[in-house]
């Protein structure tokens, strides 16, 4: 955890030093206060004739601070300090097996030992670039199991094989890619998530899957990019649970995939489903010591987790049952931050590239971020407003008649139409029409990619829709700029080969990716720029996409560029991503929440504000301005 020995701060507003004590001194807004860190991690300060102490989070919420010194604080010493004898035995075995020759960074070895001190499993939440592929093999080898299994996305099987081939003989990794390969398992086995849930023989039985055939044969399971376990009811989660592996480990740089509640499925999978180590049961109750006397007031684990950590404005019974399905209005904040951190601590081993133990081996400069706002073209703005108005009117009607918008699928479909209208209007919106020209945002992205090519640099562009990728690629081809499209419409083998041959080792200056195809699993340190054509709803998507280029072996500072249309859906998506990132960093990385007190605005509010701004700009009434814009085309 990042901390400081001495802090000076200025009070954000007038407040009482100790609200629980009558006559406590008042700290006035703008008053400067000096703080000194205490041995217990809290900060002491003098007010009047008395001394008061605050936690770091309390301090940050009351004062604007400037740090005079920067240090890192160890919050938990870890299992290796608690049980040194067991840790020493594991270290000796690691050296005897030669694992330390290729897992040779000190923090990697420390974490390997500590992770294997967990009897059931844990989450290795290393940031990208720390060596998770090597950790996966090391966990299996050091555990000494007869059969271990690494599960990755299908498109990443070749990448994982290539990574493991650098440290192990090719024959040491057994790839399960056919019914025949289920017979003779090796110590390290590799399979794709998609194959794991696939029937072995559809003609014989659709119920007998690869997971079914591997059940109880796996001593240690490693799930790469395991944040997919956030939904225990998904087919991929069910397949992983069905394996019934004795020990289970999840590797992911972003264990909180979307909302703070998403970590629930991961810790239930690795730490136990309602156990002494992990009391929040997903299919069981919340394990409480009171059960020894009576279960009269027992709670479901899901209910207790929701009450402790999830912030909701309203919720349907369907969502309350599972925390997955059904409608709700959820605010991306953590209900009880200290308790949330306490809940995660025994199950998550977190590593950040910027922390001292990692920075000894990996030096990555923070990226330089630029936001490019492009003015609307009149025709595009007209189409967008007609689409946005349809959504707003439909949404308000649903709220007026039903009290809340509980048809989640319909909401997503309508918002998707607004997203298309803003970012890919050439596709067309039902009942509104299409745009037969490039938008200002598309032109800006094309011009920037062209300028990067003229610099002799390389860039990765991320967009949601493959149609946008093909459109931009076609425009750049007309300018004699070589790019590599990378999306789901191109077979995996071909697009990966093109990426390696033309972009990584060739003359192409641009890799144009959809976020679904290119955001995870690939190492692209040769990229000088990462461009986000459109925004995402989930912080993890943008984070993983940016980390493709932020690898330990990159040279120079990465430049990240976001393209926005002022007042569009981009603004709502940015707000959503910012709140989700803030909650994740506060809960997982012990950062101080920056947006805790900020209002979370909903889309209809933002649309109304957009129209008000336009009306004020032109000196017209809101309704007149909106009608004028609609007819602009």
UniProtKB/TrEMBL annotation:
Domain Helicase ATP-binding: 113-273
One Pfam family cited in the UniProt record for this chain: Helicase_C
GO term, biological process aspect, one: DNA repair
GO MF term set: ATP binding; ATP-dependent activity, acting on DNA; helicase activity; hydrolase activity
Keywords attached to this entry: ATP-binding, Helicase, Hydrolase, Nucleotide-binding
Helicase C-terminal domain ranges (all copies): 445-607
Keyword Transmembrane: no
Protein name, entry field: Helicase superfamily protein II
């Amino acid at each position: 955890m990042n901390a400081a020995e001495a802090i000076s701060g200025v009070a954000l507003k007038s407040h009482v030093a100790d609200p629980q004590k009558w006559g406590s001194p008042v700290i006035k807004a703008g008053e400067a206060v000096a703080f000194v860190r205490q041995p217990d991690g809290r900060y002491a300060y003098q007010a009047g004739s008395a001394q008061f102490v605050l936690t770091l989070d309390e301090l940050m919420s009351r004062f604007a601070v400037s740090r005079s010194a920067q240090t890192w604080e160890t919050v938990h010493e870890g299992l290796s300090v608690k049980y040194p004898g067991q840790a020493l035995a594991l270290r000796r075995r690691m050296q005897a097996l030669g694992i330390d020759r290729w897992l040779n960074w000190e923090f990697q070895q420390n974490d390997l030992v500590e992770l294997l001190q967990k009897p059931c499993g844990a989450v290795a939440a290393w940031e990208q670039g720390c060596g998770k592929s090597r950790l996966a093999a090391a966990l299996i080898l050091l555990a000494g199991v007869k059969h271990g299994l690494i599960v990755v996305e299908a498109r990443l099987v070749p990448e994982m094989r290539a990574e493991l081939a650098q440290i192990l003989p090719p024959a040491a990794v057994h790839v399960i890619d056919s019914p025949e390969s289920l017979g003779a398992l090796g110590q390290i086995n590799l399979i794709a998530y998609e194959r794991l849930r696939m029937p072995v023989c559809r003609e014989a039985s659709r119920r007998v899957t690869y997971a079914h055939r591997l059940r109880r044969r796996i001593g240690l399971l490693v799930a790469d990019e395991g944040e997919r376990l956030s939904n225990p009811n998904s087919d991929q989660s069910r397949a992983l649970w069905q394996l019934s592996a004795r020990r289970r480990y999840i590797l992911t740089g972003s264990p909180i995939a979307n909302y703070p509640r998403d970590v629930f499925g991961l810790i239930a999978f690795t730490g136990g489903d309602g156990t002494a180590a992990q009391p929040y049961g997903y299919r069981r109750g919340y394990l409480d010591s009171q059960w020894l006397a009576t279960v009269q007031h027992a709670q479901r684990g899901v209910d207790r987790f929701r009450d402790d950590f999830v912030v909701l404005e309203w919720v349907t019974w369907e969502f309350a049952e599972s925390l997955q399905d059904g409608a709700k209005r959820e605010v991306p904040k953590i209900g009880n931050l200290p308790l949330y951190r306490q809940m995660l601590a025994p199950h998550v081993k977190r590593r950040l590239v910027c922390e001292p133990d990692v920075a000894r081996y990996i030096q990555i400069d923070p990226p330089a971020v630029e936001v490019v706002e492009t003015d609307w073209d009149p025709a595009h703005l007209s189409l967008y407003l007609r689409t946005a108005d349809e959504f707003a009117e439909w949404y308000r009607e649903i709220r007026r008649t039903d009290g809340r918008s509980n048809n989640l699928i319909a909401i997503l479909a309508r918002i998707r139409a607004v997203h298309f209208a803003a970012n890919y209007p050439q596709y067309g919106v039902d009942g509104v029409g299409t745009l037969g020209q490039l938008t200002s945002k598309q032109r800006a992205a094309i011009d920037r990619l062209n300028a990067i090519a003229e610099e002799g640099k390389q860039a990765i562009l991320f967009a949601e829709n493959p149609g946008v990728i093909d459109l931009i690629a076609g425009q750049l081809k007309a300018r004699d700029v070589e790019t590599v499209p990378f999306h789901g419409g191109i077979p995996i083998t071909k697009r990966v080969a093109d990426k390696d041959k033309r972009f990584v080792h060739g003359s192409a200056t641009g890799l144009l990716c959809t976020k679904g195809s290119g955001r995870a699993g690939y190492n692209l340190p040769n990229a000088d720029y990462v461009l986000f054509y459109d925004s995402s709803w989930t912080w993890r998507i943008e984070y993983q996409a940016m980390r493709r280029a932020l690898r330990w072996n990159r040279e120079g500072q990465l430049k990240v560029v976001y393209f926005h249309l002022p007042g569009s859906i981009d603004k709502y998506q940015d707000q959503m991503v910012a709140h989700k990132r803030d909650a994740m960093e506060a809960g997982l990385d012990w950062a101080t929440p920056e947006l805790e007190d900020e209002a979370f605005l909903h889309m209809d509010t933002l649309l109304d504000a957009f129209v008000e701004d336009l009306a004020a700009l032109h000196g017209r009434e809101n309704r007149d301005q909106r009608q004028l814009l609609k007819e602009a085309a």
